[in-house]
User: What shape does this take?
Amino acid sequence: MKKLLIAIIALSFSACGTQLPEIKPDVITASTLHDTDDPAIWVNKENTEESIVFGTDKDTDGAIYAFNLDGKIIEEKTLRGMKRPNNVDVAYGVKLNDSVTTDILMFTEREREQIRLFSVPDMKPLDQGGFKVFQEKRENEWNLPMGISIYKSPKTNKTYAIVGRKNGPKTNYLHQFELVPAGDHITFKLVREFGNFSGEKEIEAIAVDEELGYIYYADEKVCIRKYEAEPDAGNEELACFGAEKFNRDIEGIAIANNGKEKGYIVASDQQEGTFNFFDRKTNEFLFAKNLGTTETDGCEVYTGYLNEKFPNGLFVAMNDNKNFYFYDLSKITGTN
Assistant: This one.
């Protein structure tokens, strides 16, 4: 009986990921009002110490919070009055017209069924109030956008948004939009429908490896799916991997680009309370880490120098207590 009890306790610890040593965050952000979900890191290339971490507060009275590297809220950069913003991403040097480029912040606004787009760091809207998506299907929440990621093509220099939804068909679940310069704003043009869906739960987390040209997204209870990022490269699924390494829901996905095809695909194992790291080139599982967060939805990573606190890169993870955790990347990967 005693041996059986010990075995049950050991299985219990294994199920929640506590067999892994916990890595403590360097910074815990100030709290949002409601429900944190997904982060994005904007690097100020003129002064990296003034970089911003954006994070969604997923509520009807929602917001895109802006945090400095100490985790304090930058109120003048925070976007309030959003209707359930879900996932967020940033991109650099996007064309507004033939002579003007800007860095951008993009996110889904689920309850308004649209994509929002703002310039960074001045936070001016570039979308004329928002761009409606998935309007051709209105039953069963097919029209409610959730996941989003940006792809800036090294081949054409065009910028694209890849958008997922709350529910949808077994094929062509994601839409890819080209961002079209329009003078002082940007319009969206649908260029591709692609992506398999199991029908098991939903697809929320999307990440793009720009250097290698791949899109990864989480079919939450099934696998990480992989496709070509160029819209004309074909819609064949390249891989469906990682399922056996997750307890249940595969959540946030981030790409750690260490250059020359090195680095990691990182995905949150939500119910396990850990993060799984896969090889960026081969997609093979490498290791898991316990970062002390609970029920993590979104994560993001930057692999360069930011400041003395984050000299080796920054990893940001959503925590289920209305906040985000910041880590120096080398504490997680063991490299510097």
